Each structure stands twice: as C-alpha cells, then as structure tokens.
Amino acid sequence: MDIYQTLEIVRNTVYATVLFIALVYSCLILFIPRFRHRTNMFILNFCINTIFTAAYFIFYFYGIYYDMPQSMCVLFQYAFNVASVQVPFAFVAFSVHRFCVIVYHIKPFFKTKNWVAICIATQWIAQLLISLPFVFESYEDCTSNTVWMGCYTLITAVILPSLINTILNIGILICVRRSTRRTHSQESTGTGNRITHRDISLIKQMVFTFTMFIVGWTPAYVINTINVVIYVDFSILMMSVYLGAVCLLALIINLFVYNREIRNCVFQRCLCCVNQS
C-alpha cells in the first residue's frame, strides 16, 4: 500500500467520522423533546446538510462515477454543486433567522417555529435551484469539468454565502451597538432591543464556525478550478481536499462541544453506562 492509498483511507475515514457524529447529533435532537428548540433546529438542519455532503464526497472519492452511465452524469454533476453549497447555505439560513430576530425584535413572528421552518425550507429550495445550471450542461463523461463549472461552484459555495453572511452580521453588529447605547430608562420601559449575552455568544460561535468552513474549503474549490486551465500537482490537489475534510470534522466537533445541554446529556449517558457496567 503506497502513501496515496493510505491518505485516501484517512480521508474517507474522516468523512465517515463526520457522517457518524452528525447522525448521532441529529438523533439526539430528533428523539429528545427538550432539545427541539429553535437554535437546535438550525443545528439539526446543519447536521442533515453535513450528512448529505459527507456521504456524497465519500462516494465521489471512491470513484463510483467511473462506472456510471453517461445518462447519470447530469445528476452526478448537479449533486456535486448541491453538496458543495449545502453547508454554507445552512449558515446563511441561520444568519437570516438571527438577523430578523434581533433587528425586528418587536415582531413576534420572527421568534416562532414557523419562521424557523421558513428559513430552513427556503435554504433547501435555494440550494436546489442555484445548482440547476449544471443540469443544462452536456457531459462527455462524469469526470468532465469546465472553467465555468469550477467558477460557478466557487461563487455559490464560497463567495456568495460569505457576502450574505458578512452583510447580515454587520447589520446585527450595528443593531447591537445601537442597543448598548440606549439609556437605562428606555430599557426599563421595555422599548429597548433586548439582546442577551447568549445571543451575542451564539452569533460569535456561528461566525467562527462559518469562517472555519470557508478557510478549509476555499483552497479545494480554487485549485479545482485552476486545474481545468493548468495542471496542478496531484499532491497539492489532495492536500486541499484533506484540509476541507479535516475542517468539516473540526466544525461538527466544535458545534457539539459548544452545545452545553447536548454535551452534558451525552456525558451523563456515558457515565451511566460505565457505572452500570
């Protein structure tokens, strides 16, 4: 077994670990009623998107597309762009939700589960629609790639979500700064925007995790696009892929560690199992 085969096993193991953790995380939120609040619904949505992304790239890097009939290439390439944009679009859905909750705090609708459902449903519809240009492309085989396809994936998976998230977070920051300048008399009458420390901490955490994803996955998309025009050494291409896989694993672990209620629940269950044995 050479070094490349070993690295392929490591890469697929990382993706499988991501898939497993995201699946366990999702089950905890789905099957334990007290965890089904608004924030955890977005984490559940993130985990489901991560499961689809990890599963797709496991199949992708196993080279299953080599045995696909040409008629399936359109679906395969379409799924590639969907898998690429799922995770960043999940962050955008959360940012839209928090922006409306904080900026339009006097409107109770933005604090309901219906608004959560609208944000998540819109995200899924958007990521399916934005990948449609791949359906209208003609492919010689499932490994076909063009400059416009690489650029389109880079724009939709990195640049567009980053731009939207930056605008929304700047809007939240402006709102927070205005809120902190209000007088105590305004706050006592209830006219001020009540932004809790938990809101600020949650926003910081999501900005951090989104930045981690962008830093980890941007090199892979950039190199994938450049590789169409000029040859890029295979080891460099694979290193960018490994970076993306490791960052996705670090991201899902970070979300688990940050979620105190679920983390404590898991630790307590583990301790109970150990004590019983």
Notes on the structure:
The structure is a single chain. The longest helix is centred in the middle third of the chain and has 34 residues, at 147-180. The chain is mainly α and 277 residues long. It has one domain: Rhodopsin 7-helix transmembrane proteins (Rhopdopsin 7-helix transmembrane proteins), CATH 1.20.1070.10. The chain is built from nine helices and no strands. The chain starts with a helix and ends with a helix. The protein has helices spanning 3-31, 38-61, 73-103, 113-130, 147-180, 184-188, 197-229, 234-258, 260-276.
Q: Which secondary structure elements does this structure contain, and how are they paired or packed?
A:
Layout: H1 3-31, H2 38-61, H3 73-103, H4 113-130, H5 147-180, H6 184-188, H7 197-229, H8 234-258, H9 260-276
Helix pairs in contact: 1-2, 1-8, 2-3, 3-4, 3-5, 3-7, 5-7, 7-8
Low-pLDDT runs of 5+ residues are none
What is the CATH first-level class name? Mainly Alpha
The SS-based structural class is mainly alpha
How many separate helices? 9
Helix percent band: over 70%
Shape descriptor reads globular
